[in-house]
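subagent[fold] <- orchestrator: predict structure for attached chain, return tokens only, no commentary.
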Amino acid sequence: MMQRLGKNARNIAKCPSAPWLKQEFPLNSGDLSRTRVGFSYHMNETGWLDPDISKRRWSLCNALMDSDIKRPTQLILIAEGMGWPSYGIGYTDGNEVDNENAPVISNGSDEGNKSKFPPVNEDIPLNGGTAGKFGGTKCKVYNLRVSHRETANLLIYDGHVKNMSSTTGRNWGNYY
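subagent[fold] -> orchestrator:
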């Protein structure tokens, strides 16, 4: 679709604060190079592979309706991402991950992180220190980019955008 829309349409998926992301879209090349991904914004994948299938509705494995979203004014839908494979962002296994230097996995899987639901009231700083060269940081949310004075822009399910330096567990999951 992007190829039909023209070169300028690709800029929709690229944040001006991430000039290092190249807008190249290789097809069937097997090249998983980070600089060839080209997407600055990624969907919240927290709990997508939860063993409890009743919680997987957030991952669109089953039909999901707007009325199913318990807190549409708080739930993060899309956040600024690093552009690494895979394309999602989400709460990890509770440990900090290095979003700046996440390893590239040859099979295209996520960087070895387990996406789990965080405790509802957990305070989750989005930046564990000064952002690195590419806007990555150490935090409990993998693939997150904090390019704006150590904050990230987040699209909330109800459609508003919020600039945040920390979140809570309830922002990442819909099962509470």
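orchestrator: received. Logging for downstream: Strands lie at 41-43, 76-80, 90-91, 97-98, 123-125, 138-139, 141-142, 152-156, 161-164, 166-168. The chain has a mean pLDDT of 77.
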